[in-house]
Amino acid sequence: MSPPPTPPGPVRIDQWVWAIRLYPTRSAAAEACRAGHVKVNGASAKPAQHVKVGDQVRALTKGGERIVVVAGLIAKRTSATVAAQHYEDLTPPPPPREERAAPVLRERGSGRPTKRDRRLTERLRGR
């Protein structure tokens, strides 16, 4: 299956991150841009900013921060395999399970944590 043809004009960043499936809807992609969660070459991007091949895009998604390089311009949402041809993923792999902090669990019905409990919890989480 060949990739769809490159659009004739420039592509907006909110369209592009939606088309490569970083965000589920175009409005969610535009909202992420307005909130400063999408950066192009290190600078915050407005939804109408254009991207070009070779730009580095950092996007904060529900799954964590994604770092991708624009390999092709795409304006319409297609299948995931076709969308993957238009970017190069530089996102580092998640840390191994052993390195993650264990969740602090409280006994059910023990009430609201005191200030001392909260400080101990934060110390355990490494904050």
Account of the 3D structure:
This protein has 127 residues and is α+β, with helices and mostly antiparallel strands. The chain is built from 4 helices and 7 strands. It has a domain at 11-96: Roll (Structural Genomics Hypothetical 15.5 Kd Protein In mrcA-pckA Intergenic Region, Chain A). Helix content is 25%, strand content 20%. The strands form 2 sheets. A 5-stranded antiparallel β-sheet has the order 3-2-5-6-7. It is elongated and about 60 Å long. The mean pLDDT is 87.
List the helices and strands and how they pair.
Elements: E1 11-12, H1 13-19, H2 26-34, E2 38-40, E3 43-44, E4 50-51, E5 56-61, E6 64-70, H3 80-84, E7 87-89, H4 115-125
Antiparallel strand pairs: 1-4, 2-3, 2-5, 5-6, 6-7
In a nutshell, what does this entry contain?
The chain has 127 residues and is of the alpha+beta class.
CATH topology of the domain at 11-96: Structural Genomics Hypothetical 15.5 Kd Protein In mrcA-pckA Intergenic Region, Chain A
Radius of gyration: 20 Å
CATH homologous superfamily of the domain at 11-96 - what is it? RNA-binding S4 domain
Give the overall silhouette.
Answer: elongated
- Topology order in helix (H) and strand (E) letters: EHHEEEEEHEH
Instruction: Please mark out the parts with pLDDT under 50 across 5 or more consecutive residues, or reply none.
Output: none
Count of runs of 4 or more consecutive helical residues: 4
> What is the helical fraction, as a range of percent?
25-40%
- Taken as a percent bin, the fraction of beta residues is 15-25%
Q: Quick one: biggest sheet?
A: 5 strands, antiparallel
Distance between the termini: 49 Å
Which class do the helix and strand fractions yield? alpha+beta
Strand order of the largest sheet: 3-2-5-6-7
Count of DSSP strands: 7
Q: What is the averaged pLDDT score? A: 87
